[in-house]
Amino acid sequence: MFAHTSEQLAENKLSLLYILHKINLPLTNSQITELILGNDLMNFFMLQQYISELKEVEFIKEIDKDNQELFVITDKGKSTLEFFINRIPKETKERIDNLIKEKKNDIIKSTQVKAYYTKNAENDFIVNLSVVEKETQIIGLYINVANANQAKEICNNWNNHSENIYGSIIKLLTNKNSDS
């Protein structure tokens, strides 16, 4: 878990590049940290140092998307990874591959499904719900509600059931009503 030699240091940095390459999604620092720490791949302080160093040498870069700072691997980082990939032990790569298979859908959902609310007036809240796929907004809803509890409940339901809600909305909007 802790890098004591230059070989371990290189392996950890390459593992971080490998994760960003394999997941093929922009990740927040929190998402990277959760992946790494949650699976005992390295410790927090070393991870933050590696992120900073990889950013400094332009192997990864930060992009701003929807007011979030996200990390992606650069072409330079991909070339370096490709050249030195054999320095990552097979077991580590397999562990990372399994981890990504297990977590990728949750990460995609967390970056593509958005729900938040803002106070509009004294007892008035605007709930903003959206789903974005490949940088295209699939659905966006603004709902005016009477209180913060309703707003929180709507956001929670959207985060947990956006696919079903979206499907229901589409079905309702495309349903040919016999009363018309």
SSE layout:
Elements: H1 6-23, H2 29-37, H3 44-56, E1 60-65, E2 68-73, H4 75-84, H5 90-112, E3 113-121, E4 124-133, E5 136-145, H6 148-174
Antiparallel strand pairs: 1-2, 3-4, 4-5
Question: What would you note in describing this structure?
Answer:
- With 180 residues, the protein is of the alpha+beta class.
- It folds into two domains: 6-88, Winged helix-like DNA-binding domain superfamily/Winged helix DNA-binding domain (Arc Repressor Mutant, subunit A, Orthogonal Bundle), CATH 1.10.10.10; 112-174, Double Stranded RNA Binding Domain (2-Layer Sandwich), CATH 3.30.160.
- Helix content is 56%, strand content 23%.
- The chain is built from six helices and five strands; from the N terminus they run αααββααβββα.
- It has helices at residues 6-23, 29-37, 44-56, 75-84, 90-112, 148-174; strands at 60-65, 68-73, 113-121, 124-133, 136-145.
- Strands 3-4-5 form a three-stranded antiparallel beta sheet. Strands 1-2 form a two-stranded antiparallel sheet.
- The chain is elongated, with a radius of gyration of 21 Å.
- InterPro entries: DUF4364, WH-like_DNA-bd_sf.
Q: Trace the largest sheet across and list its strands.
A: 3-4-5
- What is the percent of helical residues? 55-70%
What is the CATH top level name of the largest domain? Answer: Mainly Alpha
Shape: elongated
Compressed to H and E, one letter per element, the order equals HHHEEHHEEEH
Q: Superfamily at the CATH H level of the largest domain? A: Winged helix-like DNA-binding domain superfamily/Winged helix DNA-binding domain
Rg for CA atoms = 21 Å
InterPro entries: DUF4364 (IPR025374), WH-like_DNA-bd_sf (IPR036388)
Pfam families: DUF4364
